[in-house]
What we know:
By secondary structure, the chain is α/β, with parallel strands linked by helices. Helix content is 28%, strand content 17%. It is built from 3 helices and 7 strands.
Amino acid sequence: MAYKPQAGxxxxxxxxxxxxxxxxxxxxxxxxxxxxxxxxxxxxxxxxENAHEMKDADKDDAIVVAVTRDGSIFLGNxxxxxxxxxxxxxxxxxxxxDKTVYVKxxxxxxxxxxxxxxxxxxxxxxxxxxxxxxxxxxxxSAAPSPPAD
Length: 149
């Protein structure tokens, strides 16, 4: 007589605990990595009515200068002083065909700080300067109709 192993009872429900463990690990990885994916310093952009789309500002190699509300200046994610902007922008645009630099400033930043940064960028030999703003999201409501008498 030959030995015939007996199989245990089959489970009718799948075991989802390993899958839940993997999903939690992936969630933690994405939570840690996502803030590092920002290319530039985050600011609250000024809302405007007639904003133009500047899709080139979202490219990986775009040169973006940010001015925060406290007057700090960031070139990409690197904090720079106002005196160093001209040299650093000049270095970055020296090998480019498209010499466009984008400036985004906080809505509450001082006007004089933003103008000073724009002047420094212009003195670096920039051909095109884009000012990044946010399109106003308020929908223009239709004028109320006069009451019927």
